[in-house]
Design goal:
Strand order of the largest sheet: 1-2-4-3
Mean pLDDT: 90
Low-confidence stretches: 1-20
Largest sheet: 4 strands, mixed
Shape: globular
Oligomer: single chain
Helix content: 40-55%
Distance between the termini: 18 Å
Structural class: mainly alpha
Length: about 325
């Protein structure tokens, strides 16, 4: 283990491989959709304080269930059933920080047209594979830096204050480490938002061990491959090209360590988190490694399963709750 980590530390950075294969999900979807979206961030900041209660009532009526989720779960001020709700809401809107952040939002997102195009395209693919699914309504909002996405069966909420760019001074003031603030960029909204949305349709159901979490994440990234077929693989994973090159270079080494350390069926939650969660690197593989290596390896396993079982459709694969059987039948050998 020590020799392997030393090897990783001196490995350096590598350029991405020139070899590539055509994404099998690059298809033409005839039925394009245009989702309905609401710039809720702009609407609430335009409320006339002299007619506040009446306008607030209209917001609640016209924007449910988003309005209740927003005030209860994001702002934590309750709803209109709370006696002082109006005062709480007005206090939030009139707060100088809220207003300054709103100015940042409007400067960064004067419009959301290009973002909407990416979201609409991804949802068009999603409805191609799952035509029975309804089209969500998209809400753009200011969260008070509390939450990046809101997901409900009928809506996807996107907090624009959580996507102002890695160098935005607010993130430094909040004490966010660089590896987290790097993700809070406008260009990551589409993939991360759609991942949050579709994950609610495919919740984790499996044995609580490392292998199951790896395969689960691998399945989600196969789905993202189908929903974003026209972007680079590393962009779907929110990796840098250098991190992606590291993973490709050390795939076999990582797998050998997992097997030697008997990690596949590890149930220790902290060890699982270290392999799967956002972090500067994957602790098990040294501080020059890419983060979330467990999810990336899970994707490789699921792709190997697909290669050896071409008769299994995307829908059948995603519906398969026996995650360990996917591993066992994948014939994965990096």
């Amino acid at each position: 283990m020590i020799k392997f980590i030393h090897f990783l530390l001196i490995g350096g950075l590598f350029v991405l491989s020139n070899s590539c294969t055509k994404n099998p999900y690059q298809i033409n979807v005839e039925k394009k959709i245009n989702t309905q979206y609401v710039r809720f961030d702009q609407l609430i900041m335009s409320i006339d304080s002299t007619n506040f209660e009446t306008q607030l009532s209209g917001f609640e009526k016209n924007h449910e269930p988003f309005f209740s989720i927003y005030t209860h779960a994001v702002l934590s001020i309750g709803g209109t059933e709370v006696k002082s709700f109006g005062d709480y809401f007005l206090s939030f809107l009139s707060n100088p920080i809220t207003q300054n952040v709103n100015a940042e939002i409007q400067k960064t997102f004067p419009d959301v047209e290009s973002l909407q195009q990416q979201i609409d395209e991804a949802l068009s693919f999603y409805l191609y594979y799952y035509p029975e699914h309804s089209v969500p309504k998209i809400y753009y909002f200011q969260s008070g830096f509390n939450q990046r996405f809101i997901v409900d069966s009928a809506l996807l909420g996107i907090a624009l204050d959580m996507s102002l760019g890695a160098k935005n001074p607010y993130y430094k003031q909040l004490g966010l480490p660089d590896y987290l603030s790097q993700k809070l960029d406008p260009k990551t909204i589409g993939v991360e938002g759609i991942k949050a949305y579709v994950s609610s349709d495919f919740p984790f159901e499996g044995e609580d061990n490392l292998a199951s979490h790896m395969i689960y994440q691998g399945k989600l990234y196969v789905l993202l491959n189908a929903l974003f077929p026209n972007i680079e693989d590393y962009e779907r994973f929110m990796y840098t090209p250098e991190q992606w090159a590291w993973l490709e270079k050390f795939e076999k080494n990582m797998w050998d360590v997992i097997i030697r350390q008997e990690m596949l069926y590890e149930t220790d939650h902290m060890k699982i988190k270290n392999m799967m969660d956002e972090s500067p690197f994957t602790q098990m593989f040294g501080n020059m490694s890419a983060p979330r290596a467990g999810a990336w390896i899970g994707w490789q396993i699921v792709k190997s399963y697909q290669k050896n079982h071409p008769e299994v459709s995307l829908q059948v694969l995603l519906a398969n709750r026996d995650l360990i059987s996917i591993l066992n039948q994948s014939q994965y050998q990096p």
